[in-house]
Structures are given as C-alpha cells and as structure tokens.
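ok posting inputs for the FE2/S2 (inorganic) cluster job
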Amino acid sequence: MNRQTFRVKKVIEESQEVKTFVLDGSIEADAGQFFMLWVPGVNEKPFCFADNDPFTFTVCNVGPFSSKVHELKEGELVTVLGPLGKGYGIGNEERILLVGGGYGTVSLYLLAKQAKGKKIDVIIGAKSKEDVSYKKRFEELGCRVFVTTDDGSEGVKGYAVDGMKELLRENKYDKVYTCGPMIMMKTICGLAKEKGIQFEASLEANMKCGIGICGSCAIKDKIVCKDGPVFANEEAAYLLDI
Amino acid sequence: MLKTKLMELELENPLILASGILGTSKKLLERIGDAGAGALTTKSISIEPREGHNSPIITDFGAGLINAVGYANPGIDGALEEFKDWNHKSKLIFSIVGKTAEEFGELAKRSNEINVDAVEVVLSCPHTPGYGLMAGQGTLEHTYEITKAVRKKTKKPLIIKLSPSVPGVGELAKEAERAGADIINMGNSGGPGMSIDIERRKPVLGFRFGGISGPGLKPLAIRCVYDVYEAVKIPIIGTGGISNYKDAIEIVMAGATGIGIGTAVYYGGTEVFGEINKGMEKWLEEHGCSSLKEIKGVAHE
Ligand SMILES: Cc1cc2nc3c(=O)[nH]c(=O)nc-3n(C[C@H](O)[C@H](O)[C@H](O)COP(=O)(O)O)c2cc1C
Ligand code: FES
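and the output
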C-alpha cells in the first residue's frame, strides 16, 4: 500500500485544543479503520477518519506531533497511508448505542453516518464542555445525544458509564460501540457484557508501522493495527481484561 | 517430511520467523508458532532499551519493503522478562545486537537466564548508527571477534546473521565458522535503499534510508546462500524475499536448511507459514522426494 497526498481544503477550529481538517478529496474507508498521517521530517502517527467523503480528520493538540499537525494551513499538503485495519462491524442491529470518550468520539461519527437507518443513541463522555465538539454533527444525523462531563460543565456530571446505566434503564440496544480511553472502554464493555449486549471497542495501541509488521502495537497475541483496532465481544473482553 | 535439523536445533519444519517481524511479545510469537512456524526469532535485543527511529519506519516500494526501525526493543532486562518460560513446540531463537564484542558477549551470557533454544547474533543491520554495517561489523575481523566473544558465553546453538550487501559473504561465513558459529543466517535486509515520495519530494523513511526486504531482495539472497553453501560446512538459514513455497524450494536448492520468513507476513499474514509448509509438502510428493534433504544444494551439482 502506498501513501497518498491531499491538500487541506478547510480548517475548522473546534476549540482551543481541537482542529478539524477537511481535505480536497475522498477515500474509501470503513468507520473504525484508521490511517497513518505523515508529517515529513517529524513523524507519522495513527488517526481515525471523521469522514471519508470529503476525507476529514480531527486532531487534539496533545503533544509535539499534534501541535505540528495544527500548523497545517489551507492549501498545504497532507500525506496519509490508509485505510488500515479492521473497522466496526455493521450488521442487522436495529438500535445501537455509541459511547465515545473525548477524542474517541470522532471515529463513532463516521460509524453513525455509515449505520444510517438504525436508531442511534450517542453518549459523549468528556472532561468538560470544550470537548464535546461533535455533538451537533451527531444530532444532524438524527442521533439522540447525551453528554456527560467530569466537571458537570455540560450535560450530566459523571462518567460515560453512568450515562450508559441511565439509558439502559429505559432502552434496549442490540449493540454497543465504544471508542475512547482504555479504562472507559473497559467499564462500558464490562457493563454491556454483564447485560448480555453485543459490544465492539476500538483499541488504542502504540502504532509505529500501521501495517502489521513491526509488532509495536501488540496487545497479548493480537496485532492491533491489523487484527483490529476494532475488536468485538470475547476478543474485546480478553484484550480489555474484563 | 519437513522435520529439520540445524545442528542441535530440531524443528518441526524449516520455516523460521525472521527477527524484527512481530517479534515483540511472547504471546504473539506463540501465535505464529501455532500458525506453523518451526522456530521464532525475537526482535533483536540490545543491552539498553531503544526507542528506535521516528516513523515512517517501514515503507512499501512496490517489490518489497524498506525499513529503518532502528532496533526498537525493551532492552535485555525487559526482553528476559517478556520471553521467559518459553514452552511451545516451536523453538525460540533469541536475537542480539551489540555495539562491541563485549556487549554481544554480555547479551549472550544473559540469554542463558531463560529458556531460549538458540542465540542469533546480528552483524548486519544496514541502518542503525553504532550497530551492524554502520559500525563496520560486516568485516572479517569483527565477524571473527564477535562470534568468538559470544561462543565463549553460550553453549546454545549459535547463529551468525550476515548481510547480503557486502562482498565476499562466503569468506565472512567461513570466518564465523572458524570462530565457532553453528549456523549461518544468510541474511539480513539488503542495501540500504531509499524511497522518495514524489509529491512531498522527500525520503519517506524517518531515517531516510533503510534495509530492503521482500521479493525484490530474493535474487540477492539466493546468490548469497549459494556462495555461503560453497564456503562452509555448517548449515544455513536462507532468508530474504521468501514469499511462497516455490521460493522456499528455490532457496533450499541454493543450499539452505532453514528458511527465514519476514516480509511475506506483510503480504500474506501469519497464515503464510501454514501455506508454505503445505505447498512444500505437496511439491516434494509430486516430485517423488521424501524430504527437503534430497534437494538441499542440488543447484550446485
Ligand atoms: C520491519 C523489519 C524489521 C527488521 N528488524 C530486524 C531486526 O531487529 N534484527 C534482524 O536481525 N533483522 C531484522 N530485519 C531483517 C529480517 O529479519 C530479514 O532478515 C529480512 O527482512 C529479509 O527477509 P524477508 O525478505 O523475508 O523479510 C527486519 C526486517 C524488517 C522488514
Ligand atoms: S503498528 Fe507495526 S505491527 Fe502494528
């Protein structure tokens, strides 16, 4: 597989820390798949697709690499390797629940788009209200969106799993999809498993090559970049130590 | 039919996962053993942990890969912890890299603390400052000195891994044999080579250049195995661009006893081991052979 180069068409400032980059082309990708973003002379790191047509991704400024990405301006070049890995499984579920933690919410947006026709509830778990930038976009797709924040600055104060417990009181879901910090996914999948609901989680790992060769992303006997990053049910439970 | 003996190293089949391909965790190696590899080589281990080079560390150039991983590894302490208590039907080969003969000796000594089946000494990395070719380890003198230093510290089968990109591989292999090596791994990735992204007008790899592996390397590997077979009596692991059973048969005909498999995993996943084994068995049957021994080195006759 080879790298492809696009140009930045639009930069959207979601918040002080978060920018969305819309590129001048599209790419065939399943929700949950990822790509490696190359900044020549700096590094290459994995990101998830926020949208595939036009190719869109969202970057939170958390370190030296993402701050370099934040310097990208309209008209500049972006080179990517992808789509890589295995995305979310979309079957004949009728009602699904998407649970995103912080920046992990982004990959669930493309899922909501590709799972059109299903009844979709979304929980966005964030630190505070600055981090819930995708809420409106989900609503535009017709999803019901619930927000939990650690500090209570938006939605309900608490963790995503608290929101999920609430929703499970009155709603039945055929599957729960989650993407976010490992500890959050562990609680979400743990609850889904306990309630006998199917679940899928998109795991985080240290990806250096993205193509299943270097082994840097291994968790137990799984090659996260190739066998995953999305894992379902028993496999997800095994990898998350549930 | 595929049972293989490399000195004291007895394998269910001749396929050996090459160093640096998915060799970071014990559970992952066990999985590749289950998929049909007769032996598994760990990622090369140095004394201190190493972060390795910045990404891209690997790129596909159309006829194989170029890599400059830079020996990312957890260091000897971390590696001994990770790979201890090996207990699988496939054998474990512990790959080591040092900056000096003393470091190699020390690593070999430490490897005795756990249950490894063989030690592989890498003298041939083309893209890491201080190691392999970039440190001049591909010379006759260093090959002898390092092999000797490691031989003193381990009684396990000792594999010396050479570069296909230096002249006189036969002489180097002889030097390793003279210093006490049991097996020659011929060999490492070639080059170094470079890929330039034409849209970005820059080398793709973070380190700019790296080792060439995969199908594009195969003819070089076959010729090197052929040369080494003429030069030494000890067995050879033939590594470089072996992607399917025909390639495997070919490198055995050049003189290989074991067969290293690396980049093929990129094209075919971990399933390639099972497929190559099955293909070799079928080929042998169709050609009236009862074992690979019957065709080993036949290209020389
Ligand atoms: C990504 C990658 C990492 C590698 N890392 C190592 C290493 O740590 N030690 C080593 O001795 N060889 C390393 N090699 C070389 C392989 O073990 C093998 O000798 C070479 O790739 C040729 O075989 P192949 O064409 O089947 O891949 C690496 C190769 C690749 C592609
Ligand atoms: S990132 Fe290299 S194997 Fe997954």
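notes: The pocket of flavin mononucleotide (ligand 1) is lined by residues A 213-214; B 18-21, 43-44, 58, 65, 67, 69, 71, 95, 122, 161, 188-189, 213-214, 217, 239-242, 260-264 (CB under 6 Å). The mean pLDDT of chain A is 94.
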